[in-house]
Fold:
Amino acid sequence: MKPLLPVAEAQARLLGAATPVTAVELVSLQDADQRVLARDLIARLTQPPFDASAMDGYALRAEDAPQIGSVLTVIGTASAGHAFTGTVSKGQAVRIFTGAPLPDGADAVLIQEDAEVLPGNQIRTTFEVTEGRHIRPRGQDFLEGEAVLKAGTELTFTDITLAAAMNHAELCVYRKPVIAILATGDELVPPGGTPNAAQIIASNTFGVSALARNAGADILDLGIVPDDETLIRAAIDKAVAARADILVTLGGASVGDHDLVQAALKAQGMVLDFWRIAMRPGKPLIVGAIGEMQVLGLPGNPVASLVCSLLFLEPLIRKLGHRQMISRHIKARTSTTLKANDQRQDYLRARTIAHENGQPIVEAFNKQDSAMMNIMAQSDCLIVRAPFAEALEAGGECVVVRLRG
Structure:
């Protein structure tokens, strides 16, 4: 039997075989959050489209107020959406409000707090006037024809606001990767069902789906299929017909008498890359492809399934979807002694109990069984123990994988 594959090598091989999606689609601004731009976004207008007042006050010519105490005559009003149509001449001013176009002839704005209102539509300056002050020049933000947002941008609420200001109602983005998820096992019953004495409630699909959506995928749920190779093969065909980018199977990834997934995948044309990883939890992990569809066979134990999803499925989805990779690894210190490790890279469920000099202090749970989701839910990180790592005393530095944030 081949030796177990190191985690880093397994990740590199999985991502090395992945090709980002090329299909694009138009989405509304309301649906653009966290999508990835497929084309440079070109401004359809200049912003601001005119010299605009940045403050409420008076538009005037700076040369007409050479010193504090200058008196000017107010000849009209300009407000947002309503321009003053005349021209400001010598000794004149226009009452102006924020966002209003600067009248012709004016080259400065005196804010209202610095103007004393006099009888007869006149004002007296109580502060010095400087040419260009409190004016937003035309094109200060962007110019018509400018490529303001670049292809590959992961759109945030600020980007979407900018796109709207550029006069775009729809954006061209990459299609989300489609992830087909197939749970297998005679022992599984959907949540809300009534298991018999030998069955359990199926939970993996929901956690894996949530993780995949958060990474940027659309989900095709193929449901739960019993341990029947014919039925498993039919479900695989549904994923192929739906042109899923990734088929994720849950359970049956090993080669026992009731582990039929790998055989069914091969019967449907899967080219197997590897399937045994030097990690705990999660050793039986199938990686291969059926045509252009990537295949990721996760173990059935829920903790192992989620840990493998975090380490393999999340980065795979991000690569397919043109999203930036994120690193969840940070340094921390252990609050307890960690025993020496064997040949498999261990991921210990742990929680942060304090911070010292800006570094997390983490505590591994005593129980690490890969079926215990209660402890997994209480954890906020995984302590990484490299193969053959020596014992680590309390206070020693370690690497953890953040589960949140």
Q: What stands out?
A: The longest strand covers residues 345-356.
